[in-house]
Amino acid sequence: MGEIARWATDDFRGRGIDSPRLEAELLVAFALGVTRMQVIVDGARLLEKEELTKLRALVKRRRSHEPMAYLRGEREFYGLTFKVDKRVLVPRPDTEALVDVALERTPHVALGGRILDLCTGSGCVAITLAKQRPTADVVATDLSADALAVARENARLLGAYNLSFLQGNLFEAVDNARLPWSPAKFEIVVSNPPYIATAECETLMPTVRDFEPRMALDGGDDGLDFYHRIVSESKARLTNGGLLAVEVGAGQAPAVAELFASHGYTTIEIRRDLAQIERVVSGLKP
Asked: What confidence tens digit (pLDDT) does each residue in 32-46 have?
């Protein structure tokens, strides 16, 4: 194992992949169904032909910069393991701040309430909120039928049964659905929408640019297209005192906070992620 791990390390380093040794050891461990520590400790172990074949195929995919999460078919988020593939964005640790804000700013609806997640993708935010608030009614929407198929599977695997999925463009999915309550208003609306400016999409790292779904990345000319719709249309779907919280890209928080203010939201807050980047903007409907 050690020899193949060293070979993969050198290969990844030559192709500009970050943390090449870590990535190589993790890939060997995944291919062989062992831990990374076993790869290090049991480095003298010789591999079977089938193991080598599987590992070489994975190395070939990773050297093309395909995300490790797609190779493994899963990614951890908020302590839960989510199924992921090329149909959805890979969940990022940054997005956990969006969940934190939604939970921390709504303790008064901890025993129930209605939650809406727009642009759900893999379902990581909606499912996490559904698990954290098991007595809430959670609705998740996405324009992509492929993404919703992944999200539904994740909900099934993780036992999130207080959750409904709707296909459509933002609030249109809710407007066209027959929800069990009327009017369709929510105590919490959250979203991690596409927020990369169109021109910047081509400058992203190959891992993102060449593999993750473009429709989940491209936020229009300035990256703010979705925020204009979400912020302006949320007020009619929120209960009085309801929370709107959105994830934003680096440097976008001031503009999005100003958008919140222009539409009458109060107690507007900006939350930083673990890297100290302004990542979540939230506010209350008066």
From this structure: 888 888 777 776 777
